[in-house]
Amino acid sequence: ATDLLLDGAIGAPVVDAGQRMQVPLDLFLRTRSDVAFPSSPGAADFGTSGDDPFVAGRPLQLAARLATVNQALHVLWNSGLIDLDITTLLPETISGLISRGRVLGRMPPVVRAPRGRETGDLVLALGQLELELESLGDTTVYGLSLRVGARLVTRDGALGLAIDNSPRVEAWIISTEGEGPPLGLDGPALTGLFVSQLWGTVTDLVADLSIDAPAFALPLEGIAPELADFSLVLGTEQDLEVRGGYLVVPLTLEGRTPPAAPAP
């Protein structure tokens, strides 16, 4: 597993005419893994509209630039996240003749706003992916790109990603060592196989990804010893919105203490 490490600093609060206070937060994202693509130019940044992203009337909100999400995806990708042995995940229809399967992400995943007729709050784009299939000692390398609508949702107070069931996938052959691709899998055939039999595995993996709401301990034991373990927990009860290049999260704030020990 690859852990995403966040370092940050809170900036000076800005009070808007006595009605609202904004607190900027600068983040630095990294992992402990070695860099897989040192020549990468960096994460995608589509900019913002310049408009105020916050929704009037909500007491507590968090706005994060889409560039921050793409930076997190870039850091994970550059740590080798999309370098997977998929031999055991291949469907039974082809697994008997495929001795090795590997997926390698040559470009980082990107989230962006929908364009034209694209649906969803966001679009998750992956490409270029390379799929290596080895059969009878010959290796065929395919290129794949995909785009799919996505929504950022809340599950039990944690933030997660839900993706549509109808991705747009394109596949083509980059190289093959044999007389032709294994099992006659050309680009269109591989596209159909991916959507019909492998996409469910992808959605299940994505469904397991989530970010738990952080908790902040407060040093209250000097004032009230019974509140020594008191903490504030950020949560959210609504799905996220995309506004002007920002992800806007309506937050809740809850105070918690550990349950009392039972009486002897």
List keywords for this structure.
single chain, about 260 residues, mainly beta, 8-stranded antiparallel β-sheet, 3-stranded antiparallel β-sheet, 3 helices
Description of the structure:
The model has no long low-confidence stretch (mean pLDDT 81). It is elongated, with a radius of gyration of 23 Å. Strand 2 (14-16) and strand 3 (20-22) form a beta hairpin. The strands form 5 sheets. Strands 6, 7, 8, 9, 10, 11, 12 and 13 form an 8-stranded antiparallel sheet that branches. 14% of the residues lie in helices and 40% in strands. By secondary structure, it is mostly beta strands.
How big is the Rg?
Answer: 23 Å
Main structural class: mainly beta
What is the N-to-C succession of helices and strands? EEEEEHEHEEEEEEHEEEEEE
Sheet having the most strands:
8 strands, antiparallel
What's the total number of strands?
18
**In one word, what is the shape?**
elongated
Distance between the termini: 43 Å
Q: What quaternary form is this?
A: single chain
Q: Helical amount among residues, as a percent range?
A: 10-25%
